[in-house]
From TrEMBL:
Residues 12-397 form the Major facilitator superfamily (MFS) profile domain. SUPFAM superfamilies: MFS general substrate transporter. Signal peptide: none annotated. The lineage of its organism: Bacteria, Pseudomonadati, Pseudomonadota, Gammaproteobacteria, Alteromonadales. It comes from the Bacteria. Keywords: Cell membrane, Membrane, Transmembrane, Transmembrane helix, Transport. It comes from Neptunicella marina. It is found in: Cell membrane. The chain crosses the membrane at residues 12-37, 49-68, 141-162, 168-188, 216-233, 253-273, 285-301, 307-330, 342-361, 373-392. Gene3D superfamilies: MFS general substrate transporter like domains (1.20.1250.20). One of its GO terms (molecular function) is transmembrane transporter activity. InterPro entries: MFS, MFS_dom, MFS_trans_sf, MFS_Transporters, Sugar_transporter_CS. This is MFS transporter. Its main location: membrane. PANTHER family: MULTIDRUG RESISTANCE PROTEIN MDTH (PTHR23517:SF2), RESISTANCE PROTEIN MDTM, PUTATIVE-RELATED-RELATED (PTHR23517).
Length: 407
């Protein structure tokens, strides 16, 4: 694997990679401050704000599942254009919104448009690159671009003085205008010519039944829901725990945690890819889960005032993320039949259920028990994930899926 492979990406793939970097960066200039805007404008409490954001995320997850199937039937272009128009509309309306109902609707549309876009975009990358190693490298580069955008976006917002300003949503809307136009032009000038890709004739119900019989997919979905659930506590429950414990220099510590996470992924993703390249996907998952489990145990037993202990734990978890998260997309790509890529990447949207439920269960465990109990239970769940991956070896797949699979 070499960075010279970057020159072999088709134009549409580059449009999607650069687009996700720009869109994620401008999105995160203001989205983290949305809770502040809702509080300032409507005096909502934490529970009400959380309900709005979480319910939008859950609805979007299931829309993403369905939209992936639609991209197999009606083409990637149709779904990407739909998602682009929805994003432009939602972010423009957010920049002008005054009523709470408008905010709620726009927040839901933003979440839904992202979940429509992502399965179609991943499936298009898979469609456009026939060589498996190059295709998987493109998915790695896409994940890297997401993280760079996520790291630089908030910093750029601070430097430009755009944070916590409602008008910043115009910038995100403009990015999606340009991105949608670029995708449209990319399709017209360089449409995918790979003849092995055919639109599926399956209805949603037929597709759902086939996927429900794919035991490998079902186990993978369950395992990765748990992975994201475990990981999500670093963003939510950890901050709550540190706040309750009265940790000194809390703001500095939380900022250092966020920076450590971003810099670790950006710095080590391709180093780890090179080091682990000779190992199977399952072996990479075992190593990533080991790092995640050690990070959780360090959090469980780290003295609350030991600043660098938290940073070390986050560093190990971030190394695990750099291995696990790109591997998830590669696993789905390898599993998916050529005519059901969108449906399988849509099913991968269900992984995010772990992110959606983590804040709630984390809060419950922190209230009923303690931080060490929460993080120790997460470490034990890492073992459950490994058991699920072991069971995948014996899982069965429908003949209709195997017949169309293109590895």
């Amino acid at each position: 694997m070499s960075f010279a492979w970057l020159t072999r990406f088709p134009a549409l793939v580059w449009i999607l990679i650069i687009g996700v970097f720009c869109s994620r960066g401008t999105f995160l200039m203001v989205w983290p401050f949305l809770a502040i805007l809702l509080y300032q404008k409507f005096n909502l409490n934490e529970w009400q704000i959380g309900l709005i954001l979480s319910s939008s995320a859950v609805i979007a997850i299931f829309v993403g599942f369905y939209s992936g199937t639609l991209s197999d039937r009606f083409g990637r272009k149709s779904m990407l254009m739909t998602a682009g128009v929805l994003s432009v509309t939602a972010f423009t309306a957010l920049a002008q919104a005054e009523a709470l109902s408008t905010y709620v609707l726009c927040i839901m549309l933003c979440a839904v448009s992202k979940e429509i876009w992502d399965p179609a975009a991943k499936a298009l990358i898979s469609d456009s690159i026939e060589q498996m190693e190059l295709r998987e490298f493109a998915l790695q580069v896409r994940y890297f671009a997401i993280n760079v955008g996520a790291a630089l976006g908030p910093l750029a917002g601070v430097w430009l003085g755009l944070t916590a300003q409602q008008s910043t949503f115009y910038a995100t809307a403009l990015v999606f205008v340009l991105l949608t136009a670029a995708v449209f032009i990319g399709f017209s000038r360089q449409p995918p010519t790979n003849q092995r890709i055919k639109k599926t004739s399956f209805s949603f119900l037929q597709t759902f039944k086939l996927m429900a019989q794919d035991q490998v997919l079902l186990l993978l979905v369950l395992a990765n829901i748990l992975v994201l659930y475990i990981y999500a506590h670093m963003d939510t429950s950890l901050v709550q725990y540190l706040t309750q414990a009265g940790v000194p220099q809390l703001v500095e510590l939380v900022s250092a945690v966020i920076l450590t996470n971003a810099l670790t992924i950006i710095s080590f993703q391709f180093v780890l890819l090179k080091l682990l390249g000779k190992y199977s996907l399952n072996q990479r998952v075992v190593f990533g889960m080991f790092l995640l489990a050690i990070g959780q145990l360090m959090m469980a037993f780290n003295p609350v005032n030991l600043f660098w202990g938290w940073i070390a734990a986050v560093f190990l978890m971030s190394l695990g993320e750099a291995i696990l998260f790109p591997t998830m997309n590669i696993q789905v790509d390898r599993l998916a039949p050529a005519n059901m890529k969108g449906a399988y990447f849509g099913a991968a949207s269900l992984f995010s259920i772990g992110f959606a439920i983590a804040p709630y269960f984390g809060g419950v465990i922190l209230s009923a028990a303690s931080g060490p109990v929460l993080f120790t239970s997460n470490a034990l769940l890492c073992g459950v994930v490994l058991i699920l991956y072991y069971l995948i070896r014996f899982a069965k797949r429908p003949s209709a899926v195997l017949m169309n699979q293109n590895l």
